[in-house]
Amino acid sequence: MEAKATAKFIIVSPRKVRLVADQLRGFSYPEAMDILRFIPRKGATLLARVMESARSNAKAQIGDGLKEGDLYVKKVYVDEGPRLKRFRPRARGRGMARLKRTSHITVVLGD
């Protein structure tokens, strides 16, 4: 049994979220949530929300017989979304483009 959750168009660089996501693979759900609780990065809070969503999806599939200790982080991957193009004023009337990167975060929990 697998339960999947996805968060799309999150305005944070995929590289920053991957640094956190690489630390979670293979852990049980409660251990992974404990790890995320003590990582002081924005990506940790975003990943925690997606993992909670995947857990509730698993609970909806199985029912009340689900134990959180039986769930493991099977896959975590972060893909790049579209870049938001913004412009900042520069010297002598010019404008420089800034690319705000977005992420698609996917978590798959299995037993």
Please indicate the percent range of residues in DSSP E strands (runs of 2 or more).
25-35%
Low-confidence stretches: none
Name of the CATH superfamily: Ribosomal protein L22/L17
Instruction: Return the CATH class.
Output: Alpha Beta
User: What gross morphology would you assign?
Assistant: elongated
Overall pLDDT, averaged? 93
* Number of helices, counting only DSSP H or I runs of 4 residues or more: 3
**Helix-residue proportion:** 25-40%
Strand order of the largest sheet: 1-5-2
Q: Topology as H/E string?
A: EHHHEEEE
Key features of this structure:
single chain, 111 residues, alpha+beta, Ribosomal Protein L22, Chain A, three-stranded antiparallel β-sheet, two-stranded antiparallel ribbon, 34% helix, 34% strand, elongated
Plain-language structure description:
The strands form two sheets. The protein has a three-stranded antiparallel beta sheet with strand order 1-5-2. The chain has a two-stranded antiparallel ribbon with strand order 3-4. Strand 3 and strand 4 form a beta hairpin. Helix content is 34%, strand content 34%. Helix 1 (14-21) crosses helix 3 (42-62) and helix 2 runs antiparallel to helix 3 (42-62). The chain is elongated, with a radius of gyration of 17 Å. It has one domain: Ribosomal protein L22/L17 (Ribosomal Protein L22, Chain A, Alpha-Beta Complex), CATH 3.90.470. The chain contains three helices and five strands, in the order βαααββββ. It has 111 residues and is α+β, with helices and mostly antiparallel strands.
